[in-house]
Amino acid sequence: MARLFITPREIDFISDLTKEINKDVIGQKIFYYKIRADLTDIHEVYEEAMTKVFDPPVEIEARVDWDPSDVRTNKFGSETFKTIQAYIHYRDLLDRNLEAKEGDYLSYGNVFFEITSAIFTSLIFGQVEYKTGIKLACKQARKGQIDFKFHGPTDESDTTSDAIQKTFVQQRGKSVNREGETADKRALIEQGKIDLTEEKPVEVSARGDESNVGSSFYGDDYDN
Amino acid sequence: MSSFSNTFRPTPFGFFDEDQTYIREADAMVTFVKRKLGDDILSVELTKKQIWACFEESFLEYGRIVLEAHGKSQLTNLLGIPTGSLKGAEELHPRQNLEFALRAAEPYAGEAGVGGSYKVISGSIDLEKGRQDYDIYEELKHSDGSLLVSSSLNSPRTKMKIMEVMHFSPQAAYRFFDTTSAINYLNNEFSFESFTPETVFYVLPVFEDILRAGQMDISNRVRRSNTSWQLVGGNLRIFPIPTDVSNGKKLYVKVMFNPDPLNPHVEDGTIYGVSNLSNVPFGQLRYSKINEIGKQWCRQYAAALSKELLGLIRSKFSSVPIPDGDLTLNGSDLVSQGREDQNNLRDKMVELLDTLSYGNLLKAEAESAEAIKTVLRSVPIPLGKAIVMG
Question: Which residues of chain B neighbour A190 with C-beta distances below 8 Å?
Fold first, then answer.
């Protein structure tokens, strides 16, 4: 679309809408494990590392296209194999100063995945400098390549305390919400075009449930 | 967070930026509008200045509707008053008057010769023996000899309208009692017939007098050379043909010129006063001077305007690209809802004000009075103490 109509301000608007959908509505997230090539011992001949060194995981909101497991059978027997595609908002990565690359790892649920390709999904209204997001095609990582404790939510059959996400708190462009730092930045708010909401981010949690056991919408801030 | 009072030029026009009541409400309006549009949960992409602009527009719209209705109701009383600086009358309750009706009746009064704003002037034509036709544009003159049509009252020059020709038929009454009585001719000349000592009264039915007068009048017209005139173009034809014009006999005529509605012969400052709704001296209402009915209307209208504005922002794109998909925005829904809300509020306000026009209030009062009478009729009244209503 013509640059006459789509200016950086419109791009900011679109970016903020997308972030809102990802962070304040959908709430899917992955944990990104960036490989530290400089700290990893790489084999001189094969240029591979048996043991990899990672940065601490980064929690990133993403839209995840989850494929059912593929069962493969060969002469060694059968194995269950998973793949996912994760779509990450491009500006969200820029805000975190994180570059998504092939070879990095991520966890989604109780599975670690290796990123096999990281490609931009599309341009925003054809303007080459603005990308909507990055599509990460991921395959299940082989055991031993990455071995960390999973961050929830994982699966309701798990017994770990964070296996089920019982609390979802919006971010609304605030740097901190009830769960801690958010790394959320909204361009229009940062530029002073619109005001940061004066309300506290609402949440879906046990606080919204009368019995304080279940989970429901909670928007009152009198006892925050 | 910025507030209304510490924001530079918070509203587009700044009409009410000094009104303390307005200032207090303006900050609350931001919270009201944002909450109404769901900002507690999902972002409402409106700035405070946009909401304040909507608030300002809502009060301007309220003022327009109220003053329009007031003007409609009161225009007849306000026509002609000084326009001044086009403000000052918006919060006043004008006294009723009949100026509009009287002004409308004025031309009829003028035609009847009992009022009006235009002068009737008279002149004369020198009659000539045996000549029946006289050109009023060439021969009708003032006493100083100048043509009547060239009068300064007739600028620019227009056609003259004959109001009266002093060329009367003898009144039938002078023949009532004695057709040959010399005294009756004198009486007719000096218009005091029926009051002379020679008058004799008979006790007769009145129709007898009427019938006899009619008979004499027809006799004058048929048997005698009845006095009359007619105007054909610019020529005045008189009947009968003049025979005796000794001593310079003149025919006197009263005329009027084409009335210039903006320049009557009587000085009238109201011509430069209020002429229609556009220059009635209605300025802006003051927010601090309107009651809660009006304030609540403004709040709701500001919310509706904000809803439409948010819709316009969101409908700049029907959908926006997001990673692996498109996000459809609800802009068009918001626009149509916002406009519908505005229309409803406006329609209800116009409808309400229409029922409250001064004319309709009078009708309501009349209906109320009738209803009271109806109710009182059914109230038992002690014997002998009845006060009958209506």
Answer: none
